[in-house]
Each structure stands twice: as C-alpha cells, then as structure tokens.
Amino acid sequence: MSLDSGLGSSCRPPYCCCCCSLSLAQGLGLQDECQYLLQPQLIVRRLLDVAVLVPGRPSEQILSPHNRSALYKVFVPSFTYRVSAQLVCVGSRGASVCPLTLRLRPKAPPLHNSSSVSCGGASMCQLELALPPWGHWVYVRVEIPSRGPGRTIRFQLCVRLQECPQPSLSRVLVPGAAMNMPQSLGNQPLPPEPPSLGASPEGPGATSPPEHCWPVRPTLRNELDTFSVHFYIFFGPSVALPPERPAVFALRLLPVLDSGGVLSLELQLNVSSLRQENVTVFGCLTHEVPLSLGDAAVTCSKESLAGFLLSVSATSRVARLRIPFPQTGTWFLTLRSLCGVGPRYVRCRNATAEVRLRTFLSPCVDDCGPYGQCKLLRTHNYLYAACECKAGWRGWGCTDSADALTYGFQLLSTLLLCLSNLMFLPPVVLAIRSRYVLEAAVYTFTMFFSTFYHACDQPGIVVFCIMDYDVLQFCDFLGSLMSVWVTVIAMARLQPVVKQVLYLLGAMLLSMALQLDRHGLWNLLGPSLFALGILATAWTVRSVRRRHCYPPTWRRWLFYLCPGSLIAGSAVLLYAFVETRDNYFYIHSIWHMLIAGSVGFLLPPRAKTDHRVPSGARARGCGYQLCINEQEELGLVGPGGATVSSICAS
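The chain above was modelled as a monomer; its predicted structure follows.
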C-alpha cells in the first residue's frame, strides 16, 4: 500500500504495527526477487459479562481476597463533557481505611499507566475523565494493591455523567443513554438522581457547563463516487463567526467506505469582513468529541485528546488540512475568531469574521499531481486508494521532491532510450542489400515501436505516446524477441519453406508467451536457446556431410561470428546482471546499441547464384572445366550438388 515509500514507525494502541527491514533485489534478470508477505494481525480479547453501571445510582460491590480487582463500564452518550467516578469504602477502619485503587480508561479496560487514584487513608476518592469520546464505553477498574490486606472489602461505586444542556431533548433519555440501563428497566425513564457522594447537589443555581457545550451543526453528505464525498453545511459555504461563541460542525465518515481515502479541509478567510481589525480564525478538527478553543493560549489538545489545528488571517488567507486514511466515525470541526497577535489572543469585541469552509473526501491528494497516478487497491474486503509516484517523487500526493529527477535528466534519459534505437538502421540496410527483406521488416518494426514505447514509458513529464501504452509495450517486446529469432534462424541457412514455417511459428508462440508473462526473463532466453539449438543442429549436420567445419572460411569466424557473438553475449549479461531501476536509462540504451550491432555481424551474407558454363557455349580446343556451385559453399545445397561439365570444341 504505498501510499509513501516507507512504513510509519509510530503506532499507538489499539492498533497493531509490523515493522520490517526488506532488501529488495532490484536487478532485472537472473537475480532472485525478494518475495515477502506483510500481514499485520490484531488479536482482540472480548470481555464478557462486564457489569454496567447506571449513571447517578450508587452500587454496592465486594472485593474478595481471591479476586483482587473488579471491572465495570458505563456508556458515554453524545453531548457528555465529563465522566466522574466516586468510590466510598463501607465499614473500613484503621490506618488503611480504603486500600483500593480506582482507574479509568475510555474504549478499553484500564492498564497500569491509565488514569488512576489511590484512596489510601481516605474513605472516599474520586476520579474524573474530561471530554470522553462520545458513543463509546468508559471502563472503571477497582483493584486492591499487591501489598493490600487479604480480607473482603465492601465499597460503593457511583459514576456520574455531566452532559451539555440540550433544549430539544427531554430529561427522559439522551441518544445512547439506554445502553447504561439494566435490562430489567427496559426503556423506562431513569429515576431522579440522588445527590452526589461527598458533594453538594446540583440545583437550578449551579454553575453553567464549561465552554465545551456549544450547539453542533450537522453537515449534508453528498456521495459522488468511490472515496469521493462532499460535505455541505446548511446556509453555506460561508460561515459567520461572532466573537462571543465558536461554531461547531460534525462530519460523519462511514465505516469501510470512507476509511481508504483522504479527508481534506480548506478554510478561506473573507478579508473584507474584518473591518480592519487584526482577526485570526482558528480551526480545531478532532475525532469523536469536539474540543473548544481557549481565549488566551490556542491549542488543539487536552489531556488524552489531540486534534489538528489550522488558522487563517489577513496575512495567510487560506489554510488546508489533509488526513490520509482517516478514522471512521464523527469528526468535529470547531471554528473561533480571536483578535491580537500570538502567542496570546483575546476575544474580539465587535468583529464578526467570515470564512469559506470546504470539506470533502477524495481518493488521493490532488489526484497525485503530474508525477503520480492514483490507484484503487483492494485487499480482501478492504478498498483503499494510494498514489504511485514516479521520477523519484514521494509523499502522500507525490509532492516530495527531495530525490526527484530534474527536467534535464528526464529529457536526457528519454533521448538516450529513443535515439539508441537508430542503431537498427545499419542492420536494416544490410539486410535489404543481402535480400533478407523479411528480416529487414522485422528490424524496422522493432526500431519503430521500441522508440515510441520508451518515449511513452518515461516516469516524468517528458512523455510522448502515439497510442495506448499497453499496445506499445507489447509491440516493443514482440519486436525484440522476433529480431533475435529471425536472425538466428537466418544464420542456420535452412530451406525457404522450413524457414518460413519457423518464422510464423515463432511469431505465434512468442505472442502467446508475452501474454502470459511479459516481463519474464525466460521470454528472451527461451526463444534464443531454442533458435540456437536449431542453428547448432543445422551446422552440425552440414559439417558432418562436408567433413569439415561450417562455415568453412576462417575469415567468417574471425571477423563476423566471434565479434557478433561477443557483442550479443555482453548485451545479455548487461540486461541480466547489471541493469537496475537506477541505471536503467543508460544501461538499456547500451543494450539497444549492442543488440543492433550484433545483428549486423551475425546476419549471413547474401546467397549467390550458380556460375555454370552454359551447355551451348563453345570454346577452343577440347578439355574439361570444373564448375563449383557457390551455393554449396554457403550451405544452401548438399555436397552432391557440385557438377563437373565436359566441354568439347568442334
């Protein structure tokens, strides 16, 4: 999944990370590729029959000596800004009045490093959790320390939920509050809550809830395509921010469907609405619970809650935030306008700022830009999108140019790969002069499609495609293999019918092999070895019949066959063992020139016709003349084809 070229090294519970160091074999050829499997595993242990605490109702519990801890849970509905747990030991006396430890943790059972308080000598202790995640369980653990007394301890446990006032909701049930009710009560209203243990009861004159209680404005979700969702606000997209209160918006991301894209948020400040005041608009994006921004120190984090902070002002009018692979659930965006110059701000007196809000979900960041391609990937039932960067660019949106290739380097590599195919022009001219017209057509086909395939295959912006990439690639590979095939078959000097059958059979078999595995090394070595076997068989049979080595002349071996074989072997070695992704552009260019040069040396000379003395020719005197068939010297006929003609003058 890159996404990026590396794996993130920071992992937080409850996620499971697998970090490994891989050494990939980048050589193209005989080197074995490093095959690896990255399979993260998440082991989940579900706790059954965990006691549910009813908010505001004390519950008497017992801890026996053989069971030194007890686990409880309470559900946190929406608009809850604080969870407090109170523990009172019953009937305990002495130095260690209440030898219990109280721990709290949202979403999972508490651990040794979770928020905790030790009652110790006090008979009552209390632990609070500010801004708990909405729509989740908060777990409460009561335990006896390891050096605690080995006796039965009785205690009362009461959990209270402090919720924001909602005028539209009655006191009966808030959404999700039924999760905390025992099944025996069904959906009946909760009885009035008794006074808090050790605290004064709340009355009408109690203090108002903190600044976290602001109305949450919903957004309209518009699905356009896969990972393409736009969120619209009512009466928007412009938002007016009065100085006395912030604006809070809720964004709902669906499970599975929205987790594989990129959540993008854009704020744009309307400077004309500031009335020449130094106003800065801050935005805080948090998951599962909204977080209010203070008047003085502006932060987007509090205790165990951390969010994403962005700001716009007269000097910086646009702010963008992108979150790849966001967590599903509800995200809250809090916007607030403050005046002054950082790091400390004050509440504005009479300035209503206006910002334009744009929020959407897209497959990739800016569609990966000009140096990347956005791809939809699927693993089992998980669908996600990622950028495949090229030309050395990296990052979520292929925007990191630290190791990017320059434009000049891209142009140079393109020219080398394309112009190196002009080395096929001499073999084409030589083949036409030697009357190897079919072979010349194959070389021309290879030169043409190899040139335009490499012009279309470049990783950067220096790209030119005359047709579909897949067609160019197939024709380039087929032409390269056919060039090797027809050259070796032509060197075997077979009968015309046999040669044509092998040409046609090779074209069909090579097309089938390329469809099966276009990048396999054996697609090159297989046909080459088979053609060399045919060549060796033909030359061996001819040498046995003639009773001397074929080809017969040492000049042919010294000046043509040996240099051509050496050049072709060097090209194969470069392709198999030297060529990598880093040196591809110049090593592959050398491969083009060496293969084209070897064809010029290995292609056999033109077959000459017989120079026999015509039967009607007359010469002075009477004698014998030995007429040698030159085709036999080239291997086109058997040794029995040589004739001796007797010419007698009248």
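The chain is about 25% helix and 25% strand.
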